[in-house]
Amino acid sequence: MNDFSASEEMDERTWSEARVSAMKLGSSREQQMRSTPEQDAAQNHRFANSTGWAVLLAMVVILGLVLAAVLPDSVMKNDPSFYADRIAPLFQGKLPYFQFEFEHLPLAIVPMALAGAVERATGYSNYPIIFWALMSAVMFAIAYYVERVGRLLGLVGSARRWVLVAAGVIPLVTFRVDGLSLLLALMALYFMIRSADRPAAWALGAAIAAKGWPVILAVADWWSGRRRRAVLTVGITAVGGLALLTIPGFTSGRSFTGIHIETLSGSLVGLFRTATTSSARTVLNAGASYVEVGAWAPFLNAAVGLSLGLVALKLVRGEFAWDKAVGLLGVLIIALMLASPLLSAQFIIWVTPFAALSRDRRISLGAGAIALLTGIIVMFWHMDTVWWWSVIVVRNLGLVGLGWFWTWTLFRDDMPQRGRSTGNVSRAAPIAVWVMPLVLASLVPGLTWVVTERPMSIRLELALAMSFAVGVVALVALAVVSRGFTHRMRWSLSIATVVVLVLFQWPTLNNVGIATAAALRAPFVKEALPVLVATALLWLATRLGHEWQFAALLGTGLAVVVAGMIVIGSPRLLPKPAAVAEPAATEGPDVLLLVLDGYTRADVLASVFHHDNTAFYADLEDLGFVVPDKATANYSFTYGAMASMLELDYVFREGWLGSEGQQRLRQALSGDPELYRRFHEAGYEVSYAENGWSGSYCGPAVDICWRDGLGERVVWNLSRMTIFAPLLEGVRPHPFNTVSLEHLNALPDMFRNTRKNGVPRLTVAHVILPHPPLLLDESCTRQSDGARHPLRVSDPELLEQRRTHYADQVECVNNRLLDVLGEIISDNPDTLLMLTADHGAELTRPEDADVSLWTDDELASRMSIFSAYRLPGCDRQAGPTTTPVNGIRLTAGCALGEDMPTLPDRNYWVPSGATGMVIDVSERVDAS
């Protein structure tokens, strides 16, 4: 390994063998294998400038040791301490996996155990330094094989280039085991290029046994025609991996919660939370830091990595050449890192040799920049700062960009150039002119959701997830029309852009049809016009897709639309609240505020919906509840009712509701409302259960958030934007139903997890039941016919059917609620429980109709609500007409030991769009 003085004869023989091997594999690169006079001069000694890269590498590894010693906040030298603890039982004669926990692959134990053996043999009790010395030697071996592989590919100075590219992460990797797998993978690659089958197989097997990722090298075997060996490699790896997963000593060490903080989705969530709240909510598991997130985050990572990997694998169809194969392997490594839920800083070293072996300097520079950013992340580990999370996000986005750019460089030689010709010169505008419209079109659906959900707060990750899902669809459309990214790329980009616009903006086209039909008084236009417009747009794209003027015009128009949507949506990002002190232990009771959306009063249920609810009321009273029989809503719509309860006061009074009022409701619904502040000051923690409504997002003052199912929201929102929305009605699950049922059933578990630190909890849960869609029968089994009709209908037969469905959904809620309340009261009898609706039910009158058009009976139906209170130990109890704003003041005062005066019970009509006149309708409600 350290002998740099091999003979010219051996070097020439190696070079000839590489050329013959490449020719046998059908390579089209024979001309590139013929060396130039400059290369011949460089080949007269085995490694050009070998002393230079060795000195440079020595400086880098020594610098890593110095930085690990002088930077107190770095995590560079943390892992060797874990390694020493992991392998300590080995020296007591115990077997890894079976007699002690070991979460690494089998061969990874070799450097760990070797460092331990040296420590015990020499008596030098500094395991991290010994481990660093061993892995530093591995770094020199890696550089040696990078140079050898580079020479087989016709590249000189590859080792020096690799040291420069990987300099940012080499100091970290000398304290990690990842260098071993990389060294073995490079050895396998070297022998594969030389067609040395047996050493290649042994090296590849050892590399996979050390880390697992080198199984990617099987792709090169498959492409070059060695498909049997590729299948065996993947098959044996899969069987071995499954066998390891059956061993408790391996799987227990791999268990973790959430997703690694350095992954793409993990870093985005961490940045968003750190910028908007006081904590990214990370946990330490399996020796690493993870962000607490839902199942959507691993899915997002997997989708990003898979999309890149699948596109890159299209190269396998092309003619094999080892320089392209090395580039393909580099892209697939990036795809694997992006898809992994366990991306850590040291993984970046995997891709650096392949980037250094690229003929495109931009790839080497990009990989070097990513490695440098990774080094900054590790050396200055500050998880409580926005800048630190921003560096991780930039690093990850750079990794995504490098992967796609690298893929493009592999494709570009095979893509026919299209463009305007002038004489014998073919000119085409930069590909970005066609790419940008497709990127912007992918952002439009997510931003459309942001705008249409005004004026509620923005849940940024939902908009990002929607944009990503549309991006995947756009990529698929592009792959279809471009025949796998190799045929008329510019034309295909334009077609894909218009397809995305037509597919996900169908409501916009439909509204054009409705408006035109009304203006022309021609009803048939309503259905025909959207189809004609969509067809015309697609036809135009097929005719002008290769014209840069068309692409520029499309991109400019979309840029204006996207910028306008961002301007409209950006004010709804809530500011970071003042820091809340850590709750102190207190003896207060746990409190539940459960809001049942659209649950009307018993008398209205009997008179309008022909449903008798007296048995349910009797069951509640048996559980100790007081059930007001004349309760009314403070506001006609959810946002006003919820905001007033959370602020312990009326948020809107009679008058104009404009931008200032919208800011107040956002602060109440997704900020730091008075209810949370009071309970925090009293030593409580606050938990909140979201639902499928945009006004229900957890704000920065919420300590524990029960999420609303990001995947369901993405599918639901996007499906509503497509032409297939009517077909999917009644087939797709509605988040209002699915999320609400899940959270209703989970309420006992929410309470069982309280008081871990002696701290009581206020839990706020807004359940959008029995609110439409009316998809559930009395046993909460999903039915289909209730979704086929509009929310409000005038046909007497359909209206009666809707009434029956509403009554069924009420019974579903009743049955689940009695079980849930029974469990909560049985576990903790002192819990204070407030159950209330935000507003009543109305099935016939459009919500946006002027309140003067509502009859007194219709208004009474909307403003009459169900409510129930169980306040053990409280002097005051709810009265027959208690409204929610006074009910929550009563409940909070009881829990906190405060006397909160009763406010006048008022009923307000608020506009459905949260802008316009707020009208006091108390007298009409009282009269009815």
Tell me about this structure.
- The structure is a single chain.
- The protein is an alpha/beta fold and 928 residues long.
- The protein has a six-stranded mixed β-sheet, sandwiched between helices. Strands 1-3-2 form a three-stranded antiparallel β-sheet.
- A hairpin with a 2-residue loop joins strand 4 and strand 5 (425-427).
- The protein is globular, with a radius of gyration of 33 Å.
- Residues 1-49, 415-427 and 786-791 have low confidence and may be disordered.
Number of H/I helices: 38
Number of strands: 14
| Main sheet makeup | 6 strands, mixed
Gyration radius, rounded: 33 Å
| Principal-axis shape | globular
Helicity level, as a percent range? 55-70%
| Order of neighbouring strands in the sheet with most strands | 9-8-10-6-11-12
Q: DSSP strand (E) fraction? A: 5-15%
What is the CA–CA distance across the termini?
94 Å
Uncertain parts: 1-49, 415-427, 786-791
Based on secondary structure, the structural category is alpha/beta
Mean of pLDDT: 80
Core attributes:
6-stranded mixed sheet, alpha/beta, 928 residues
Quick recap of the structure?
With 928 residues, this protein is an alpha/beta fold. Helices cover 57% and strands 6% of the residues. The radius of gyration is 33 Å and the shape is globular.
